[in-house]
Design a protein that fits this description.
It is built from eight helices and four strands. It is mainly α. The longest helix is centred in the last third of the chain and has 24 residues.
Length: 266
């Protein structure tokens, strides 16, 4: 039986939608941003170079942690867990797998992906081109329910990024130092943590399934804090994409020797 605009109970008109506003602008804008980030991140992780600035201990988040013997000297803060990788395997494959899984299964990115990349549907009252939809209970979309588990992995990598941020307070001649790269790294850290902590899965983990908040005052405090961040989860999601790109591009430029870091102290 036909569904949607072709259902028997609907008026049979040739127009796919009667909306006269620019409904396509929002999904187009988000789609361009998502597509750009996907292409940029894919190219960068397969470059396997220009990810570490030894003078100031800057490590791009796309390659953190770098734990293979293929990593340049000094970039393996946590040691080398694996031997040298073949040239076709990215050094940041673990980082990519966990964080791409976290963002790809995120409730906000699901909506953005459905509307912007898959047109399912592109906007309210605009029919989608797909003839069949089985929901997120069957393969491959059932894998989206792994989001809560990817969240735990994102927390671990968030802590690793904080460690990288602390390492970025490194002076050119040793000791303490602050440069423009240090500030960019910490701005990215704030954006990433706002995105992570405003996650719907985080809100459920800290306060879900509680029948009486009075008996769990600490979890109620956490739940209240996350609930204040949650309405802007989509904003943090998009902002953090740009901060990740900015951080990686800046560190890549320094590592490649295109220009020098602006130093404020040492």
């Amino acid at each position: 039986m036909a569904t949607g605009v072709s259902a028997p109970g609907r008026a049979q008109i040739k127009e796919k939608t009667l909306r006269t506003d620019r409904w396509w602008l929002a999904p187009l804008r988000i789609g361009v941003i998502l597509a750009f980030f996907i292409v940029y991140a894919t190219v960068r992780i397969f470059m396997n170079k220009w990810y570490w600035v030894d003078a100031y201990h800057y490590l791009t988040p796309l390659y953190s942690p770098c734990v293979t013997e293929s990593c340049v000297q000094g970039s393996s803060h946590l040691g080398t867990w694996f031997p040298k990788f073949p040239v076709f395997i990215p050094f940041g494959i673990i980082t990519f797998a966990v964080l791409a899984g976290f963002r790809g299964t995120c409730y906000y990115y699901r909506k953005a992906g459905y509307r912007s990349l898959f047109f399912a549907p592109a906007a309210c009252a605009v029919p989608e081109p797909h003839k069949k939809y089985t929901g997120e209970s069957k393969l491959p979309l059932v894998a989206l329910n792994l989001h809560r588990y990817f969240f735990y992995g994102a927390l671990v990598f968030g802590l690793l990024n904080i460690y990288d941020g602390i390492q970025a307070f490194h002076g050119k001649d040793g000791g303490f130092g602050i440069g423009l790269g240090t500030l960019i790294i910490w701005i990215n850290l704030v954006a990433l943590w706002l995105y992570t902590l405003s996650c719907h899965a985080c809100r459920h983990i800290v306060g879900g399934r509680l029948k009486n908040f009075a008996k769990h005052p600490m979890r109620y405090r956490y739940w209240t804090f996350v609930s204040k961040l949650n309405p802007k989860h989509g904003t943090y999601a998009m902002v953090s994409l740009f901060t990740v790109i900015l951080t990686d591009a800046y560190i890549m430029s320094l590592s490649a020797g295109w220009f020098s870091d602006l130093r404020f102290f040492n």
